[in-house]
Each structure stands twice: as C-alpha cells, then as structure tokens.
Amino acid sequence: MASNNVEDYLIKGIYGEKQVKIEERNVFLGTIRERIEIALTTSQVMSNSIYPNVENSIKNKDVTLLLNGTLPYNSISKYILMAKNKNIPFSLVNNLPVPTPIGLVVTHSKAIEKNEIFVKDVLFKSTDF
C-alpha cells in the first residue's frame, strides 16, 4: 500500500494534478462549462465596445475573469481595466495546448449550471465551435 502512495506521488510530481474534462478546459480557458457565467468569442472580445452582459455578470464579486492571452492587448485591455476598477480577479490565459475560439470567460469557483452562456449576435454566428 505504501508503494502505491509513493508511485502516485511521483506521477503527480511528473505530470501534475489529475484534471477532469481536459478538452473542455482547453476550450474554456482552463475552466469547465458548468462554472461559466458568460463566455465571449475572440471576435466578440475584439470588437470596439465592452459587452454589457459582461459588466452585468461581474457585479457578483464571487467571479473571476479569464481572458485569452493570445489576443492583441488593445482588444483585452478594456476588460482588464474594467476588472481592476471593480476589484474582480482576472487572469490572462496563455499556452493552451490547442487554439480556442473563446476570448473571455466569467467563471465561478463552483458549478452554477447556467443554460445559456454565450451572447449570440452577428459576431458569434461567424465563429465555428
């Protein structure tokens, strides 16, 4: 039994913590679908204005803003500034193993099971998932 613990410890040290739903995490900037309040595509984030849905969703202080770090800074800076002004934690997510069409995610630390997380407008329809 002790050798199992040592082996588990070594595997954890080499490969990191075991994660569930890795494919989902790769798409949704490191989080899973059931925790997401709202998600925007890269084309939506790159638009000139801030989406009001994002502003409304961060009124709840128990959220974190995840931004696709591969997008140009001038596209994501408006959301970074908004998060700083409202004291919302945020992270720039880089080095995902596969490209993702998601540009921004407002996420909770626990599951909320929201039915519709996307803002479906003209820019959303032009993006394939």
Structural features, described:
The chain is α+β, with helices and mostly antiparallel strands and 129 residues long. Helices cover 36% and strands 18% of the residues. The protein has six helices and four strands, in the order ααβααβαββα. It has helices at residues 2-15, 22-27, 42-45, 52-57, 73-85, 122-125; strands at residues 36-41, 63-68, 90-93, 102-108. The protein has a four-stranded mixed beta sheet. α5 (73-85) links the parallel β2 and β3 (90-93). The longest helix is centred in the first third of the chain and has 14 residues, at 2-15. The radius of gyration is 17 Å and the shape is elongated.
